[in-house]
Structure formats: structure tokens, C-alpha cells
Write a structure and sequence with these properties.
The structure is a single chain. The protein has 158 residues and is an alpha+beta fold. It contains five helices and four strands, in the order αααβαββαβ. It is 36% helix and 19% strand. A four-stranded antiparallel beta sheet has the order 2-3-1-4. The chain starts with 5 loop residues before the first helix and ends in an 18-residue tail after the last strand.
Length: 158
């Protein structure tokens, strides 16, 4: 991972606020000329610090009304079982986020679907047959308070 200086962090802040801003606009915001700013952005992309750009879509307006946080327990804690499970879960487009966690469960997934009937179909047809799963618990979101917020970036190390 590259060492991020104050300019890199400022560029990342600017892109989190508006990823559609032009290079010239970003350069002005971070007090760089356009050429070095563009070089830094490309380095951040090539190094994987910036993984991509996407639209932040309002789920409800496109008919995705239900968010479910699903916890999974996996049988026999082995690296192979965890990898099998993770690969199977990554293949499901309804899963928009997944974390290996500590506590009573092994994984936590954020699932977004149209409605309860769509979740029931996903649960019975796909989630319950995931490899090595011994237990699933579903927690339904009542209301979204904050989703996909920008990261609070650390201060530059000098």
C-alpha cells in the first residue's frame, strides 16, 4: 500500500464528495496543478486505494424495499470452509456487503431485495443451501439511517 500524504488524502476526500468532479476541479480543491493531480489519482487507482467508481442509487426508488442483515454460522472452522462459503456468497447479487465477524456468528451479510417474498425465495433457494452453513438468522432493517457514508480518512503521517 502506498504511503498517503496530505494531497492524496485530500484527493480521496474530494472524490468521496463528488466522484464525477473533473480533474481540474479536484486539483483546485486540493491546491495542486491538474497534471500532478491526475498522476496521483491514477496512482491511487493503480495501487487499489481507489477500487472503482459507482452511482449511489436510492434503493427504494428502484424497488428494492427490504434490507436484511443475515448472520451465518459455518461448520468446522477451517480456511477451506470459510473460502467455499465466501465464494458462494460473493456470487449472489442480492448480497451487497459481507463481513467475517466475531461473536455468536461467523459472517454477517447485508442483503437487499424487493420485498419479503423475494427474501423468502432467496433464503430458501440460495442461502439455506450455501456450503457449510449450520445456522442462519435474519434481522430486518426498519429504516435506513445512514448507508454508504464516506470514510473518515486518517490524518496524513508526516
Amino acid at each position: 500500500m502506498p504511503k498517503l500524504d496530505k494531497f492524496d488524502l485530500a484527493i480521496l476526500e474530494a472524490l468521496q464528495k463528488d466522484a464525477r468532479a473533473t480533474n481540474v476541479q479536484i486539483a483546485e480543491q486540493v491546491n495542486l496543478s491538474p497534471s500532478p493531480c491526475l498522476r496521483r489519482i491514477r496512482l491511487l487507482e493503480e495501487s487499489g486505494v481507489i477500487r472503482g467508481y459507482r452511482a449511489d442509487i436510492d434503493r427504494g426508488t428502484v424497488g428494492l424495499e427490504l434490507t436484511v442483515f443475515v448472520t451465518f454460522k459455518v461448520a468446522h472452522h477451517t480456511r477451506e470452509h470459510a473460502q467455499d462459503f465466501q465464494q458462494a456468497l460473493q456470487a449472489l447479487p442480492e448480497v451487497v456487503g459481507c463481513y467475517m465477524i466475531s461473536g455468536n456468528s461467523d459472517f454477517l451479510a447485508e442483503v437487499v431485495v424487493e420485498n419479503l417474498a423475494a427474501y423468502e425465495a432467496l433464503l430458501t433457494d440460495k442461502l439455506l443451501v450455501l456450503p457449510h452453513v449450520t445456522d442462519i438468522q435474519s434481522n430486518f432493517a426498519i429504516r435506513s439511517v445512514k448507508t454508504s457514508g464516506p470514510l473518515k480518512l486518517p490524518a496524513a503521517k508526516t
